[in-house]
Amino acid sequence: MSEEQLPSATEEEDVVPIAEYNALRVSHGRLQEECANLHRDVIRLTAENERLKEDLKVSRFCYSTIKSDIAQFIFLTGLQTIVFDWLIQKLSGTVDVVCNKISFQDHLLVVLMKLKISFSNKYLAYKFNVSNSTISKICRTWIPTMAIVLKPLIKWPSKGAVLKSLPKSFKNFKRCRCIIDCTEIFIDRPTNLTARAQTWSNYKHNNTIKYLIGISPAGAITFISGGWGGRVSDKQITKESGFLSLLEQNDDILADRGFLIRDDLAALGVTLRIPSFTKGKKQLGAHEVDRSRQLSRVRIHVERVIGRWKTFKILQTVIPVSQVDLLDDIVVVCAALTNLCNSVVQ
User: Fold this and answer.
1) Contacts (Cβ under 8 Å, ≥6 apart) of 9
2) Domain identity same for 80 and 165
3) Mean pLDDT across the stretch 151-161?
4) What is the pLDDT of residues 176-231, one digit of tens each?
5) Rg for the chain (alpha carbons), in Å?
6) Tell me: the pLDDT tens digits for 246-296?
7) How confident is the model at residue 278, as a pLDDT?
8) What does pTM read for this prediction?
């Protein structure tokens, strides 16, 4: 080959950089396209992440997510949302937030679900994403305070107020001031032998705490005693609970046959109305039978109110000995909340 046909050194040096430059331009274009695609992916994934966060907030169990479902809310708490909001206002500033992880409203929701459905602490801890001990602390902090705040809702009415709201079914019992009955709540068997004996109920064949409850003819709970061991008689709890001090002369008190307090009431000028019983007679007279039927028809209202009160299912459970100290407060709160509901007496 001649020297003229061989490329010069300068020509070869010029050709190589141009080829590399073109290759780099192609590679750079691809990188730009990939960067643009990655940028779009980042924007899309960021938006998706924010959406998932919002979905997670919405799906989390709390007051704000269930208040719009009225049926579910009433099932879980026994209350309308308007009553719940009123309770929040009443309790604001009187009780502490135990856990900053959940809202003030959720603290009340925890307590109401505990009272209404009697959910275990473990289940409530799972639903609200907190610890078992936090649920226990919320209940022990809130229930006593709620009892103090809500106790005025259990009010002994004046004679005039009773007469003004007297239902038609009481037309033959216009002097009726109150209908009374006793009810018992099961507790675990105490390890202490004295406590075990005092709480044993021969009627329920179990260890119980007994309460005297009184309702007005209109169906409001107007009196509830402190808790007594199930062994105590209806007469003793009536005499020693402070109930007699509320009565006035010419009052009528309706009760069942187990209340052997006629003489105690007579000393106060109060009349005890109970269904007639034979006392050795072969049968009752026609007037006595009719009067007993009329009395039974109106006295049954106290059992209906107690039934409404015990729709707070914690009152139907067996209370652990470790929680018996809270029972009086639980009973007061449930009674007050029952008075916020529509009356069962028409």
Assistant:
1) none
2) no
3) 95
4) 999 999 999 999 999 999 999 999 999 999 999 999 999 999 999 999 999 999 99
5) 36
6) 999 999 999 988 899 999 999 999 999 988 665 555 566 666 677 778 888
7) 54
8) 0.80
Residue where one domain finishes, among candidates 98, 128, 151: 151
Question: How, if at all, do strands 176-186 and 221-224 pair?
Answer: unpaired
Give the count of alpha carbons within 13 A of 206, CB side only. Answer: 12
Domain extent, residue 42, equals 1-59
Please report, for residues 42, 54, 58, 219, the alpha-carbon distance to residue 47 in angstroms, rounded to integers and kept in the order given: 9, 11, 17, 57
Strand partners, 271: 252
345 domain residue, yes or no = no
The dihedral sign for the CA sequence 247, 248, 253, 257:
positive
Buried b (16+ CB within 10 A) or exposed e, 134-163: bbbebbebbbbbbbebbeebbeebeeeebe
Domain end position, chosen among 128, 151, 174: 151
Q: Are residues 94 and 194 in the same domain?
A: no
At position 61, the amino acid (one-letter code) is: F
Nearest-angstrom CA–CA distance, 267 and 278: 25
Quick one: the chain helix, strand, coil %, rounded to 5?
55, 10, 35
Dist CA 134 CA 121 (whole Å):
9
Q: Beta strands of 187-285 (E only): which ranges?
A: 200-201, 206-215, 221-224, 228-229, 252-254, 271-273
Looking at the structure, do residues 177 and 302 belong to the same domain, yes or no? yes
Cβ atoms of residues 180 and 216 within 8 Å:
no
Nearest to 78 by CA among 107, 118, 106, 126: 118
Give the Cα separation of 184 and 89 in Å (integer): 33
Which amino acid does the sequence have at 256? D
CB 214 within 8 A of CB 223: yes
